[in-house]
Amino acid sequence: MSGCCSGARGDGHSGVSVKAGPAASRGTRGETVAVKGGETFVGTHDPVILLDGEGPERKVLLQDFHLEVETVTVGRFAQFVEATGHVTESERFGSSAVFAPLLDDPELATGGVGNTPWWTRIDGATWKQPEGPGSSADDRLDHPVTHVSWNDARAFAQWVGGRLPTEAEWEHAARGGNRRRRYPWGDEEPTDERIFCNIWQGRFPHGNTLQDGYFGTAPVRSFPPDEAGFYNLAGNVWEWTGDPFRVRSLSRPARERNDQARRFSDKVLKGGSFLCHKSYCYRYRIAARMGLSPDSASSNTGFRIAYDTPPDTRVP
Question: What residues have CB less than 8 Å from 298, skipping those under 6 apart?
């Protein structure tokens, strides 16, 4: 999906292996919250963006699991690369999608992405050079790693002995269990003055008032955690999940979207990003979602890790 919210690579097939080598040392598990499973639900009966497949609400049964409290940081991903020699898909392809206003040098832009002129392909943009040649992530070690594909995220998850969460697990954790709420903090709507997370303030894409203090990504613990202890489940960066993207609707646009998603093997992302705003991309709600091909990467896509609960352990 080459949509408003993130740049898509488009074909879904890199033709390269991205898993960590078998000789690599195992990575360290991050701080987690234990999440009680049981009968719960995913989606909503009150969808806002119908074509995204936010509804209908449907019941699911979840096992207990653990979810890391924050998205994987640049510093932690660097440790993974150092230990495994992993080369990301953006590095292999030689380019990635960058939010053009982040560029110090507009001449680096090599062309728009789809119908979204604020996205551009930048040769040499990677997780360690987020805006391409001349940029560096060295001063963002506590920010979420970006320019990582679904395949890259799965390779990291394997390294630490975890996995990507399912969409239902992600929503269940964000809602704080089996209850209906619009955001991880409750139902209060964020505005340009009431700040709960890192999203756009002002008029997109021409003016960001920076009321939250950030133009791009923010450190992974920039805002207070929700009551369970999770940071930034809304805003900052889109988070890859393990699920394929599907729309449950019989409408013709939905069928066409499903055909496209299957063709590109699209995966679900959750949480919205620093580019979201109610007037433009109202996708920082818990039920909101987006689909991208698994080889896509951009300035605002990242991930966090889930873990299965051992069979002899139960979450209280």
Answer: 6, 7, 96, 97, 98, 99, 119, 146, 147
104-163: pLDDT as tens digits: 887 777 766 667 788 999 999 999 999 999 999 999 999 999 999 999 999 999 999 999
| Neighbour order of strands in the sheet with 301-302 | 290-292, 267-270, 238-244, 301-302
CA pair distance 84, 300, nearest whole angstrom: 24
Structure token pair of residue 106: 């507009």
Question: Cα dist. 284→51, 197, 220 in Å?
Answer: 16, 9, 16
pLDDT: is 245 or 106 the higher one?
245
Cis peptide before 130 (omega within 30 of 0): no
Nearest to 305 by CA among 174, 163, 115, 208: 163
Q: For the segment 189-243, what is each residue's pLDDT rounded down to a tens digit?
A: 999 889 999 999 998 887 899 999 999 999 999 999 999 999 999 999 999 999 9
Tokens matching residue 186: 């409750």
302 within 8 A of 270, measured Cβ to Cβ: no
CB 96 within 8 A of CB 122: yes
Q: Residue 244: helix, strand or coil by DSSP?
A: strand
CA dihedral of residues 182, 188, 193, 196 (deg, nearest 10): -60
Q: Which CATH class is domain 32-92+147-308?
A: alpha beta
pTM of the predicted protein model: 0.92
